[in-house]
Amino acid sequence: MRHRYDCPLRWGDIDQLNHVNNVKYVDYLQEARGALLHACREAAGVEAHHGDAYVVVRHEVTFKAPLRFRFQSVAIESWVSEIRPASFTLDHEIFHEDADGARTVYLRARTVLAPFVLATGTPRRMVELERQALAPYAELGERSRPVHVTVPRDRAAHYPIQVRFSDLDIYRHVNNVKYFEYFQEARIAGIRRLQHGLVGQPRLASVIAQADVEYVAPIHLRPQTYDCWSVVSEIGERSMTIESEITDGTNRSSQGTVLARSKVVLVFFDVDTQRSAVPPPGFLEALTDALGPMVTATR
């Protein structure tokens, strides 16, 4: 059985391409996840306890088609794809369905969650009551994989991350959705710097095809900024891959503790056709030159 949640869109969810911004999809998944967990508790006849808490360990998000603003809600189906001793995984699909039942899928995603003790902030194992509550929504499938990135500091672009008070969740950690926003800010800043090295080349839009984020340790509110380090790990015919880490260090000489990792695949995009595009001759070479040491591999 799959849980269905109808999520209303907001005008403020739209980006400059008139698509729902990639960060907002993760916000929708959070809403759907909360609705599913509430349904699990109701079905099992148990009340939520003050000490109950779940943290997101990993998101794997695949963007299938652009979603434009509409006044109708977008549908989200969620189900349990894996239950492990100290975590469980939810799979999601965001879609619209027409009167004939034909489905347009905008996103597929996987979220790994882990229970922890709110009072101590330490992880704990799943208990049998939780397994029973999740069981009706189980469609066990492929296991989620950790996000592996390589971000050498001597070749990485740096972006300072300033945490805002409104970024915090009920656990007084930075909410999992905000990490996507932080990586987006660092990515946009890097692309803006690239434009200076692409003079004479046509301006190409890009959209995200895949975004994977691993949450290693909580980020808290503090006056000092955190560091986001990014490199382009691959340039293909229609895409490039950016690998990033957020750390609590303050400079390049100090590696700092890694708090989150991200791997994002950006696809070059034709605004007129609303499809992926092959850049014109010379563009990829100019891009590689503009990136300089930030490029770690090409294909």
Automatic annotation (TrEMBL):
SUPFAM superfamilies according to UniProt: Thioesterase/thiol ester dehydrase-isomerase
Transmembrane segments: none
InterPro entries: 4-hydroxybenzoyl-CoA_TE, HotDog_dom_sf
Keyword terms, alphabetized: Hydrolase
EC number: 3.1.2.-
GO molecular function: hydrolase activity
PANTHER family the UniProt entry points to: 4-HYDROXYBENZOYL-COA THIOESTERASE FAMILY MEMBER, LONG-CHAIN ACYL-COA THIOESTERASE FADM
Descriptive protein name: Acyl-CoA thioesterase
